[in-house]
Structures are given as structure tokens and as C-alpha cells.
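Case study.
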Amino acid sequence: MWSEDCLDRPFGPAWNPLYHLGGLGFFYYWVVAVSGIYVYIFFDTGLSEAYESVEYLTHDQWYLGGVMRSLHRYASDGMVVMMLLHMLREFALDRHRGSRWFTWVTGMPILWLVIICGITGYWLVWDMLAQYVAIGTTEWLDWLPIFGESIARNFLSPELLDDRFFTLMVFLHIAVPLILLLVLWIHLQRVTNPEYFPARGLALGSLLMLLVLSLIWPALSQAPADLARVPTELGIDWYYLAVYPLVDEWGAGTGWLVAFLGSLLLVVLPWLPPLRGGGAAVVNLENCNGCTRCAVDCPYAAIVMAPRSDGRPFEREAVVNTKLCVECGLCAGACPTATPFRRAKALAPGIDLADRPLAEVRRQVEAASAGLTGQRRVLLFGCDRSVPVEQLPLAEVAAVRLPCIGALPPSFIDYVLSRNLADGVFLSGCNSGDCHNRFGVHWTQERLAGTRDPHLRARVSRERIGQLWVSARERRRLQDAVQIFQDGLPTDPEDTPPPTREKAEEAL
Amino acid sequence: MSTALRYLGQGFVYAAFALILGYFASLPTYTHFPPDQALIKLSLAHGADRKGGCRRRSQEELRKLAPNMRRPMDCPRQRLPVLIELEIDGSLLYRDSLPPTGLAGDGPSQVYQRFAVAPGRHAVVARLRDSDRRDGFDYEHSEQIELAAGQSLAIDFRSEMGGFILRR
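After joint prediction, the assembly is written out as follows.
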């Protein structure tokens, strides 16, 4: 997306905040937790003491308590922003349908719980905003026919309210974030290697930003709550409390209806319309030796290793849970038996995609390269989610598209070059910080670098391999990079090697 | 892009985000209630009399009941509706017959209403009927009140405290 490309320039893919929204959300959660613990030490749960204790922190102890209070507020707000952007982005990039529905749907209670955390937090300050929130919430809740007596009546006058009420609010304000943590854990159950913490530089930058903001624009209380007065003009935290003016305007019943229908719509969104997959990964036991590489590389925990069922002399075998499989093919790319050099029998790796098997990829590679002529023939591999490589108007370049670049076993590169099907191989895929299938680019880079199985064989000339990771919008950039790579390919193997990827990017 | 430019760009993005974060954390302000008005809340929860009086069960009826259910008095659970009226400066602001709550209709009748009024001196009259009488009211309260702008006055009802209570 355009916004991501813009942020890629100053941050780079490793620190681009849009690629780490979930991790940033978690980071803000911990900032909220730590600052909240500090604020709680000084918080007094009394009707008048609550406001006074927060005022003491804000003014008398501004250098630490005030900063902690501001950090608590701004990190909470940041958490809402990260959460909403995360949701919006996953939706826009179509990462909420199919097997990913579980992660999407379990995100909905997180949304509600975070909002409840914020509401209970604002309530505790017991200023005019807290009074507005307390009365608004109870009036809203009273609309539901579940309470014997109106709970808004507790706020008719000061003498009807007692200190125990604050104890209840403190309990909720601590218990709900703990429940939130549990739901976050559930939310990540179908994701392997989730990002619990963003890149260190990004975390430091975010913390510094929050600190500066807290010092320049400290969070302040409004006038102390007074039930004998009506809150009139209020400085509202729109991240958490935007619903209150809407309920004031629409009425409680419409407010509930909108909240219910909105939540329902978000929950059913993964099935509007349902994602029709071509076929999950299938295990071919004849070639599976239970090496576990596919299970380790699967980004969505769709493969587990089970005891051997066919009596062959291996301990385990891969088993695919088709309900979790997103059909990315990373497992096939990781399979050591997925080698195109096999000729004795049909190419049938231990694990493969049902509708896009590697035998078909090999056939496409051979067919594409057969049409290539000249002395700088390039075979360009791309993925479904990045630039459509077959549409690039490049001479002497043949393109093969895969569901994900991580689905390409490194042996295919060896095969192309050693069989002289092309003079160079260029790999492209999603931006390196933002692979649609999470680890496709990362695993490919590691396989090429020899730090992840299966390695690309040492005999393959790295100078004949180019790579560029771009978003689907960066068609021109990829085209230029391939052109430069192609121009740099030696016409004779003994000639000077072609420029490296860094040099090609530098030239751009 | 040079490293210095990159850090400058990052600083710009962080500053923009901080500005958005800080601004919407308290601005723009929201006017919940007109500052030149006062508020009267009519809120009460009161159970009216039972519909119909209690009746003594006959020995025959008691014999038919399980031993633990043999209560001599048979009292209907359902309550009557509560009729309530609120008058300000001689004009009727609110009048409603509030049905009892609960599945069996044996809970208290409830009302929670907000009225914005001009600040100043007002004559408030509140009336409530909780019996099966046809005319008139069982409780009535009249009072001259002085309301300032932004003030909130709650009109509550507690029969054990004699009827209406004005909470300022």
C-alpha cells in the first residue's frame, strides 16, 4: 500500500511500524501495565481521595508520577490506534478470511476488552469526565433488562455513593487487562512465532515518543466530580470514549443496536464472502521422512508431527490440519525431498500443495525457459501477492509465479542454472517486512544464505541470483532491478560476475 | 536515503503520531450539556401495593399443599402500577403510569428521566400514586427551588422517609 511504501523509506522494512502493528500493540500494553502499577501504588480508592491522589501524582510528583500517568494514558491510546490499524490492515490485505478466521474473530473480544479497560480507567480519576463516563455507562447499561434496579441511581447524589464503589472499579481495571492477556494468548494460538515485541529500534522510538509527549503535553484531570452539577464541556479521550457522545445523540437502544450489529458484522466478515481455497497441503508418506522442517516452517501451525502410521522406519510423519492451512506452500519449499532433479519417478515431495504441485512448477519452469533465447536469459520467480511478474515487459525474461516465494525449494534455483535453463535467476516477492504468508521472504533469504534448511547448494553461483522484495505497487522498481541484474549477467561464465543485489539497488 | 535523512524522517513520523495521539486524547472538547441550563433528574424505584389483598386459606386448601408450602395467607405477587406526575412552575413536565418490573410483575416500578430547565427559581410539584385508589395521589411534594446554571437536582422517592426527596 502507498502508506507502507512511504514509511519504508525512513524506517526500512525491519522498523516500518505498519509491519509491526500487532507487536507495537503488545509493546504499548506493557508500557500501560508498568506505568499502571506505578500509578496504582499511589492511588487511593476513596470518594474524594481518588481525585486527590491522582492530582498529587500529576502535580506534586510530576517528574515521575505525572510522567507515569501520562505514559499510562498515551500508551493506552496508542494501543487502540495500533489495534484499529492492525484490524484495518489485515482486512485491506485480505488476511482475515479462510483459515485465518480464528485470529480475526478472537480479535473482536480484544477490541471490547480494551475499551472496557479504558472506560474503567477514566472512571477511577473521579473528575467531571469520570462522572460523565460513570453516569453515561450506567444509563446505557440500564437500558438492558438485566438489572433489578437502575444502577444509574447510584449517581443521583454524593451521599448515595460510597468508597466500595472505587474498590470495585479498581478490581475491574486490574482484572479486565488480565483477561485481555488471556484472550491475546488465544488470539495467537494459530500463529507460529508471533511477534510479542516489535523490533528494538521501533520499541525505543515509540517509548521515546511517548516520554516526550508525556512531558510536553501531560495528562491532566478535569474539575473534581460533583454529582450536584452536570458535566457540561468535556475534554474527551476520543479513542476510548467516542461512543458516549453517539449514545447521547442516538439514545441507549440505538447505541446497543449499533454496537451489537457492528460487532456481529466484524465477526462474520471472514465469511463475506468465504475464501474458496484451491487445496491445502497434502503429505505424501512415501517421500516423507519425518524431518519436521515443514512443521517448523509453517507460519500458521497447520502441520504437526505424529507417530508414523505406515510402518516405515521413521519415528514421525507430517500431518496437515487442512482447517489451518492457508495454502502458501512454505512447507513444500522446506521439504528436502522437493528436488526437481528427480527423474526416475514423478516429482512428488513429502509435502506439496494439492492444486499447485511442484511437479507443475517444474513443468512451468521448463516451458518458460524453453522460450528464452540470447545470452542473458533470466528466469524470474514471483509470488501471488507482490508484482505480477508475468506482466513485466522484459526481453529474455521468463516468469513463473508461485503462491509464495517461500514455496520455492532452493534446489529449483540450482536446477535452472545447472541445467542451463537460464543464465540467471531472480527472486521477488512481498516486501521483506510484510510477507503475506509471514515468513516466505525470510525463510527464502535464510535458505539462500545457508542458515536454514534446506540450503541452496554451495556450487550454485550466488552472482547469478538476484532478489528484490517489493510491494505489489512497485512494479517499476522490480522491472528496473531485473533489467540491471540482467544487463550485469556475464555472457560467458568466465567473464566478470554480474552485480550483486546491493549494487543493483544502489544503481536504482 | 542517507542515515541522517532516515532518522529525520522517523522523527517526523513519530512527531506526527504524537500530535495525533495527544490531540485526540482530550480534544476537541465535547459539550454534553448546555452550560446555561440546569438539570432535573426524576429517578425513583418504588413498589406499589399488591394487586388485591391477602386471603386466608381454608383448611381444605392447606391440606392439598405440600407441608413446606402450607402458608396460611395467600397473597398475590403482582403489584399495581405507580402513577407519577412532575409539575414545574404550574405546567406538567411528566406524567406516566409505571408498570411493575420483574417477570411476575412483582418488582418495583422504575423511572429515570432527565429534564433540562432554565436556571432560576422554580416551583416543583411531584405526585405519586401507589395504591388502587381511583383519584388523587398518595404522596405529594411541593417546593420552591433555586437552580444555578449547570446544577443538577435529583428527585428521588423513599416511602420509608416520608415520600419525595430532593437531592441537590
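Observations recorded in class. The interface with chain A takes residues 1, 5-10, 12-15, 17-18, 20-22, 24-27, 29-35, 38-39, 41, 43, 45, 101-102, 107-108, 110, 112, 150-152, 154, 156, 167-168 of chain B (CB under 8 Å). Residues 49 and 131 of chain B are 5 Å apart (CA to CA). We will return to this complex in the next lecture.
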